[in-house]
Amino acid sequence: MKLYTYPASPGCRPIAQFIADHGLTVEQQIVDLQSGEQYKPAFTAINPTNQVPVLEDGDLRLPECSAILKYLADKVDSPTYPKELKARARVNAMMDWVNTALYPAFGHNLCYPQVLPSFKWEDPAHQSAALTKGQARSRKMLGVMNDAMLGSHAFLCGDTLTIADYMAAGILSLGELTGCDFSPWPNVKRWYERMTAMPNWQSVHAPLYAWAQHTKGPDHVRV
Ligand SMILES: N[C@@H](CCC(=O)N[C@@H](CS)C(=O)NCC(=O)O)C(=O)O
């Protein structure tokens, strides 16, 4: 198998961690998003949406972080993607929520406009308004995660680790770039600490921490 990846990306890191945690042999080919390699014809032919991650397995070419995690988990029969119908449905719902609610609010509207020039609004008033909205929306999401999803459970879908945890931790770790502190949401903080204490976390997520050395500063809007 082969993974087209960018090691700092929040969609690629959860897959890299899954691969490391499960001891899988997957060739990882870096697509340099900084230099625009994703828009070159060679990669456009692989993914016309010009985005990583993409997994290749024989004649299967699979984009989308969520779909890749599910495929890999099924392929190696991982307990992180339960087979029982209702348990699996809960994991699917959580992953959809991460992709369509948490990531847009916390990643696209709050963290990215402060650390990625392509996401920054040119007009300072627009930037400020977007961050205010992103902050409010992220706080609401973190509240839901804290109270309704995690509560006293160890993980997002109960007391066992699932691929939804891999995915959500990839997104919330973007807060490292702006110095976010999850203390107002103690269950989220506890869960995030549990995820970052996993054996392969530091090595897999090292590119994020390296990036954060350049982005951390006192002026960021945080949750
Ligand atoms: N819906 C996709 C989104 C993937 C995505 O946003 N990839 C980003 C990196 S995190 C990317 O490749 N961006 C390059 C670009 O859009 O130019 C998924 O969940 O995998």
The amount of helix comes to 40-55%
Gap from first CA to last CA: 38 Å
Give the tally of structural domains: 2
Tally the helices: what do you get? 8
Topology:
Layout: E1 2-5, H1 13-21, E2 27-30, H2 41-44, E3 54-57, E4 60-63, H3 65-75, H4 85-115, H5 124-150, H6 163-172, H7 186-196, H8 201-215
Parallel strand pairs: 1-2
Antiparallel strand pairs: 1-3, 3-4
Helix pairs in contact: 1-3, 1-6, 4-5, 4-6, 5-7
The chain binds glutathione (GSH).
The site of glutathione has 14 residues, from helix 3.
Describe the overall structure.
- The chain has 223 residues and is α+β, with helices and mostly antiparallel strands.
- It has 2 domains: 74 residues, Glutaredoxin, CATH 3.40.30; 131 residues, Glutathione S-transferase Yfyf (Class Pi), Chain A, domain 2 (Up-down Bundle), CATH 1.20.1050.10.
- Helix content is 53%, strand content 7%.
- The protein has 8 helices and 4 strands; from the N terminus they run E-H-E-H-E-E-H-H-H-H-H-H.
- The chain has a 4-stranded mixed beta sheet, covered by helices on one side.
- Helix 1 crosses helix 6, helix 4 runs parallel beside helix 6 and helix 5 crosses helix 7.
- The longest helix has 31 residues.
- The chain is globular and about 50 Å long.
- The termini are far apart.
- The structure holds glutathione.
- Glutathione binds next to helix 3.
